[in-house]
Backbone:
């Protein structure tokens, strides 16, 4: 804190010096420095204007590109819909993937039944997938027990 006080005293003494009348703070600097600054300031202002113009052009190009992309996607979806409908009517599998990608598991329905020692779970239409999940496993964590059954079922499908 003592160092700050010394700094402030030095500034106070400098500020206390009377200025000659009619002299502005900038006029106290030599004329050479201000002319150098003015010469360097002009290219900065020009570069700033160029940057603003470039940003506006880039934003316009991005918007134009997004509009082109949206238009192309719309055309693709329309053509794909017509092609899929034609494939469906002809009874042919469509080679273009739809809403589900290839790594999505197939939809299945489960039959769940309460038993004496736990819960009996089976995939509809697949009696070989029947399994009894003990109540102790369900009390520990229903989610873990369900996931374990699903993992076993996934292995059966592959």
Residues:
């Amino acid at each position: 804190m003592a160092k700050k006080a010394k700094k402030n005293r030095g500034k106070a003494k400098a500020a206390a010096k009377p200025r000659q009348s009619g002299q502005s703070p900038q006029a106290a600097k030599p004329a050479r420095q201000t002319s150098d600054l003015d010469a360097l300031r002009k290219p900065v202002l020009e570069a700033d204007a160029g940057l603003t113009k470039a940003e506006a052009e880039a934003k316009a190009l991005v918007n134009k590109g997004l509009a082109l992309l949206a238009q192309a996607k719309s055309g693709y979806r329309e053509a794909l819909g017509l092609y899929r409908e034609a494939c469906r009517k002809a009874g042919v599998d469509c080679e273009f993937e739809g809403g589900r990608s290839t790594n999505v598991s197939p939809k299945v329905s489960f039959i769940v039944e309460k038993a004496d020692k736990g819960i009996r779970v089976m995939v509809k239409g697949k009696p070989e997938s029947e399994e009894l999940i003990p109540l102790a496993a369900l009390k520990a964590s229903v989610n873990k027990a369900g996931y374990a059954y699903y993992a076993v079922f996934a292995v059966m499908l592959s």
